[in-house]
Amino acid sequence: MAEELEQKQGRVADTVSSLLQGGTVPEAQQMLNALHPAEIANLLESFPTTERKLLWELVDEENGGEVLLQVNDEVRSGLIQEMDEDELLAATSGMDMDDLADFMQDLPKTLTGEILRSMDNQNRQRLESVLAFPEDSAGGLMNTDTVTVRPDVSLDVVLRYLRMRGEMPELTDHLFVVSRFDHFLGVLRVSDLLTRDPSGQVDDLLDTHAVAIAADTPAREVAKMFEDRDLISAPVLDERGRLIGRITIDDVVDVIREEAERSILSMAGLGDEEDMFAPVWSSTRRRAVWLGVNLITALLAAYVIGLFEATIQEVVALAVLMPVVASMGGIAGTQTLTLVVRAMALGQVASRNSRALLFKELGVGVLNGLFWAGALAGIAILWFGRPAIGAIIAAAMVINLVVAALSGVGVPLLLKRLGIDPALAGGVVLTTVTDVIGFMAFLGLATIFLI
Amino acid sequence: MAEELEQKQGRVADTVSSLLQGGTVPEAQQMLNALHPAEIANLLESFPTTERKLLWELVDEENGGEVLLQVNDEVRSGLIQEMDEDELLAATSGMDMDDLADFMQDLPKTLTGEILRSMDNQNRQRLESVLAFPEDSAGGLMNTDTVTVRPDVSLDVVLRYLRMRGEMPELTDHLFVVSRFDHFLGVLRVSDLLTRDPSGQVDDLLDTHAVAIAADTPAREVAKMFEDRDLISAPVLDERGRLIGRITIDDVVDVIREEAERSILSMAGLGDEEDMFAPVWSSTRRRAVWLGVNLITALLAAYVIGLFEATIQEVVALAVLMPVVASMGGIAGTQTLTLVVRAMALGQVASRNSRALLFKELGVGVLNGLFWAGALAGIAILWFGRPAIGAIIAAAMVINLVVAALSGVGVPLLLKRLGIDPALAGGVVLTTVTDVIGFMAFLGLATIFLI
């Protein structure tokens, strides 16, 4: 069941792919353009570069702009390179201001000038007002297509105005009520407009407690507000309280999805806008950085092992068992770390409760440490027939799981204080600690008690 | 900047906490209830169990239901245990049908009977229709508060009907047009209702291409549809095409967020509805499972090392360097795995492109393998002064990074074919492979060429 949509898309992709190879281009084209632009974008991302270019030629011009907005950054720049100026200009027509503002950052400078010149004054000003804010702020997310009314008119007047206007922007769940100087006063709900007596005044239905968002609010925070309060749209105000635009839930959903993807991909040191068929060479370079960081931490662990070369030479069983201690610490620590990083992202960790959290995690670490220490000691004794090795590995295990709990709570708090994103760097730092402590505890105890 | 909202919430939490400790309960209560229910929920989750209970006593009854819906499952059951039947009944009043259906699963059986009895016939039928579907399907997500109109009336009649009705359900962006037998015909957009000539017929504005969702569609797929098509609400139909409810974007946003959290938490073997202050004992038991799985894989790697005890005894430097090879393979493999699992979730991996993907990843593996093999060989030679060790570790590194690329692509595809979630099990299987191959290649080559 869960695969239905995927399966459908997969079937279309397979068919399009074989039609292309068979040379029946018109049918492939028809099939492709019957999809929703978001589905076309998804499909384009899934084709290797050469086939992707062929496919992109087949996408109807009317879908082009929307598809470009939906593919990831890296795929987008690849597609843009294949387009001439006229095609690019055509793709931008009909884009929302916030989308256009994002899109223009990928275009050659000459073209952005041309786009700005081809707009009327009002639209140019609107676009420039969006471009004035960072992409990941409320101002960068906003659209400028607001419908505004005055507080001192009747609903009937508003209804007549809307009929004259002829259409409303998508996702309009309320109209914005503003003063003569564009100062935001509150909202008028569309549902009130439909259900209340038309002779009433806007004033009387004005909701002055509606959420209004300052233009410099970070996108992540905007998403949280939409999520907590079930918003569809919200007004964006400049620093003087004037209405300058509106954010809609569709853009917020994209923010939420991108944020989630970013956290998963960044844990593996990957960017979130990567083309899965990026050229081998550029993928290699990007991933090499993360591998280099890991090499340094692995060498640090190796250095610790090197301190105990003599001990290992004496008792080779230690070399066999030492990765087990390190690895269990890494797993236990990662569990605590994941929990703490998530709670930190929700604003749930502070000095008031970090102590209680630490004690709880220490408790879990000690209990699981004792339990698995017992199990592992038994296995070690059966395997190597030396009770002393069993005792030593048990002690090292308890030590490492306690250290894992300490680091799982402490490392993200420390990183945050240093201004480093714990979601990005937490895992590397933590496993370095548990590797080093794991090897040191196990080999150190062995040196003291076995040799 | 990014911390503003968190900081605000943190400040409130600190103040409430110190007010409570100082015994100034009324002020704490006032401060708490000035927050939005979602914020209260977030705050409750962040307090250790004893303080949380105190705080929960202070939440106003009118906020209670909404707060209960917003906290995670484990915290919710804890709070419900503190409430008597009357409080629980009060909390359920005014809940949407989909929320109530979820909530009832946490209530004692006696109470659910009472709730059903206290409802009128119509609402009971509605609730039962939601309860009939799994929680994570369109039917389980839907609400039953649809506004329906007939196709053969004028807009004016619809407007008068709405004024008579007096209010509309939240997030109503279109009305559903149904036949006499409740068969879904299409939607009438609220914006058309507002902007078109009221003497026109519903028929003429009927959008028959609007997305309609079958009740058994999985939640994940519903979310994808909302996301791709920027929907606010969509009708839910039974297998005979009759309108039975409606899904709104606010519930979909929750699905998206939960799905994202689940993927991050499940990578560390954690559940997504865990209380961060769960009792130590129950946390210990839950996490022990994942540690146990890891112990088995770690012992497998230890077994492989054990095969080469004699070799290590001869050249202890091998024991020092062997974790480096294993760890680099794990990192490189995780990068490929993360990329592939994400693409699979988007339906972007199929037999048509898995070969191209594999070749690309192999290319990256070989190049990064050669590069870091060179670097590591240099370090090994400088460290231990034996060129042979450098050559062997370089060869093992290339082998392991190639195997990592193969497994990064192959393991998730294989797991999926076996019906196992690659996001859950992929990491463990992959690192087991890279550990085993890393140790085997390095120690095996050393046994052949050094001894």
Automatic annotation (TrEMBL), chains A, B:
Membrane topology: Multi-pass membrane protein
Assigned keywords, A-Z: CBS domain, Cell membrane, Magnesium, Membrane, Metal-binding, Transmembrane, Transmembrane helix, Transport
Molecular function via GO: magnesium ion transmembrane transporter activity; metal ion binding
Subcellular location(s) of the protein: Cell membrane; Membrane
Pfam families the record matches: CBS, MgtE, MgtE_N
Gene3D superfamilies: CBS-domain, MgtE N-terminal domain-like, SLC41 divalent cation transporters, integral membrane domain
Domain of life: Bacteria
Subunit structure: Homodimer.
Name assigned to this protein: Magnesium transporter MgtE
Organism: Spiribacter salinus
